[in-house]
């Protein structure tokens, strides 16, 4: 009843092209921002930060990145874990080599380095497509993990082969290392996630995003109408890898604090992020967040219900989780290949007409 | 000279490993040709088959951990040990049942979707089956013994010792696996060339609609192909399970089979075999010659990088059908 565009007059192109054309959506967005910045940082504790909010925000960034590549540009990638590892090791090397520079700059630079690596592994996409490309990106996954395992320079010759995030502060607040408060971790990830989501939204509705979508829908046809596949595909790989690199850097520096490459950035991570964008919705910014929230919350929920309430052994619960995740993926692909984002859009369509049927 | 003899031994071992890779790759090719589905779950199918075989053979109660957790019972096993042949037959039956279920519950609903959607559905299927296998039979490492000979082959060792002054170490299991794989491939080729169902399968692979219009049942063919793939997975599961125990890492051989497919082409049975041999030999020799220089453990990625470089020059693989695109 109150969810209407009636009475919300657009008087210019800016109004017409805005992200939330309906007033209630805009208010909802501002309200969500107000809660995220005004309330959650003051009430958050370590459990909620570590189990829910921080991984959600970090994976949302990774899912945004993969969604740009897979959802918008149509290039399926299974190398996400490897690219996250590049971000993590890049930020580690930068943090230890230049301790006097702000960690925010390091994280952005790590994204940049990942973008270069991503473009390198994106080169075959000019020749091969579809499954062949998906399998080719696995080469990136295995090669990068092996590289960070075997070359001691990357982990500063530490005996354990692990990398540990040194303590760094932003504006006097600790954001990495053991002294970090829950609110500090949360805010850093929140700001990065919001800024990158804003960038992604504006890239995807501009020239570049339209080129990506043209390539996705049919690359030969796109080439004929004047889209250069070289720049379109490589820019998709670069932007996507930048996002994924930042996510990897945050995952290591802010969330985990210490990481071992095979464990933290293995192939399961690639699949996890892929599942997020399938469940959330391919080619949707909102879907990246929804999918990340879903895949982060599901294990927490299942663990609480199965282990906490039913008293099952944890390994049995973990196997059940695999089954449920797998079944859900198949279920979503059958029932709603466009994911949670499409369900949300459909619900909003219905709501605009409610309570009148036509 | 010593290096060359070692290389020859590694070459032989690589060939045998390559046959095992080819065996897994074969399952992929069969399904891909008949239904256009790139079945990521093939490796997990092999794991599931091996788990089921061990479970049936040793008479374990399926879902016993689950039942014990819910009802507080202490079920362990039925207390029998079945002969290998019977257990293998029963497991083959389970794999056929699984094929029917997959077709009914998953594939049937995804007809006409884009290939990449189907691919992702099989990733979901792989997760589901992995969880199901663990819930059904437990996640502990099991030993599988169906009576295949194991251990060093003395005759080869003595022959090579007489020729080169150095006895080659060749596992008898590998020789058997090679023989069985060769037999399986021959049987599959004969099946697809000389039987009615085999011709129908090739017709479906060629063109779904044309096959439908001459009265071939797509659903029957799909169930059949998935059953055959399940059977190939069972054979692969027996080989790998006997070699290195039945455990989660068994499903990772699927990841080894992927570059084999890229190299050989997704649509070619000879391609799968040649690709498997190239990768098996290539990764062993690379590890032997180059591995020590760059830190070892190159087997994880060598196959992929080789396939990647290869693909840049020949996108359809060695024997794949030429990819023709029209707007």
UniProtKB/TrEMBL annotation, chain A:
Q: Kindly provide the name given to this protein in its UniProt entry.
A: Branched-chain amino acid ABC transporter permease
* DNA-binding as UniProt keyword: no
Q: Which InterPro entries match?
A: ABC_transp_permease, LivM-like
The record's section on CDD domains has:
TM_PBP1_LivM_like (cd06581)
Sorted UniProt keywords: Cell membrane, Membrane, Transmembrane, Transmembrane helix
User: What's a Pfam family this protein contains?
Assistant: BPD_transp_2
Please give the start and end residues of each transmembrane region.
Answer: 27-44, 50-69, 76-95, 101-123, 130-148, 183-200, 236-259, 271-296, 316-335
Asked whether the UniProt record includes Metal-binding among its keywords, one would answer no
Places the protein is found:
Cell membrane
How this chain sits in the membrane, per its record, is: Multi-pass membrane protein
